[in-house]
Amino acid sequence: xxxxxxxxxxxxxxxxxxxxxxxxxxxxxxxxxxxxxxxxxxxxxxxxxxxxxxxxxxxxxxxxxxxxxxxxxxxxxxxxxxxxxxxxxxxxxxxxxxxxxxxxxxxxxxxxxxxxxxxxxxxxxxxxxxxxxxxxxxxxxxxxxxxxxxxxxxxxxxxxxxxxxxxxxxxxxxxxxxxxxxxxxxxxxxxxxxxxxxxxxxxxxxxxxxxxxxxxxxxxxxxxxxxxxxxxxxxxxxxxxxxxxxxxxxxxxxxxxxxxxxxxxxxxxxxxxxxxxxxxxxxxxxxxxxxxxxxxxxxxxxxxxxxxxxxxxxxxxxxxxxxxxxxxxxxxxxxxxxxxxxxxxx
Length: 346
Ligand code: SAH
Description:
It is a single chain. The chain has 346 residues and is an alpha/beta fold. The protein has eleven helices and twelve strands. It has helices spanning 10-19, 24-35, 47-56, 128-141, 166-177, 197-204, 221-227, 236-250, 268-278, 303-315, 336-345; strands at residues 62-69, 75-81, 86-94, 97-101, 105-107, 122-125, 153-156, 189-193, 211-215, 254-260, 283-289, 320-322. The chain is globular. The mean pLDDT is 94. Bound molecules: S-adenosyl-L-homocysteine (SAH). S-adenosyl-L-homocysteine binds next to strand 8 and strand 10.
């Protein structure tokens, strides 16, 4: 694979253009074109400069390979990377704007028992520019511009564990929130982690005030180990401490994801234990009914059971919502589409 031009920060691009002996304003033209989601071949520069760039950099590091549209308007994308790998993305339309779900790795090595993204293990990390390009491409496809973006919110909840690809993800966050670029406010970005404690603590010192989201899915370490192998390494208590550090550093309340699995974590006792665990903390709980994955033998709960769980949390004074499961008719859960396409093509 060639290098990825979208990896570069504004300053790095300026330096590159100077190094190539080009005039400074060329960097502005290139940067704006890239942020508009243009491939190198469509950048408004001389054919000679375009050729020089194409020798060294990928023309289009992320391409839409397949689009599925669900009954509720949710769109699911399969993106093709320059080395032939596939990743998934989702665009969910809400009243207040469009939220894009972005991948940070090809596959994942965290091994959560309910998740389809991790079925084939980790293939490779995405670069900062590959993460950013998912947004640039969809913003362009949906008719968005840099002033009037079609993608207003971003969640790092596609395939991959963002903190297992720490440096590239932080670089993506810096480039993606920079003035003059696609410039998505950190407040409109959610980063979801399975709870890699050292990286969570390190991230608190980066000065990026986003919505830190932690996949909890259990109330005791013993139960968490049953579905999340990462629980063998980090305790819930240490995750809560890391969240508190993030809150102190940024003033941002944090969020817990809790997928309700039948016979596993969804009884009234679990709701009460979850409330005890989180009482008084500046946090919010996002409940979601498990999206059943064919290859996994875990069952979801009924809507009634989910509302009962939510009711207990609310009664206990915990801020919580039950998320609508969007796009389930097109394989909304992580990794399901990629897994299906890879299987078809085998
Ligand atoms: N690696 C990150 C991002 C993962 S995806 C993390 O672990 O947080 C975003 C969320 O979807 C996580 O909370 C993840 O646990 C959850 N998830 C994965 N598969 C799911 C499924 N089949 N049903 C419901 N939630 C699922």
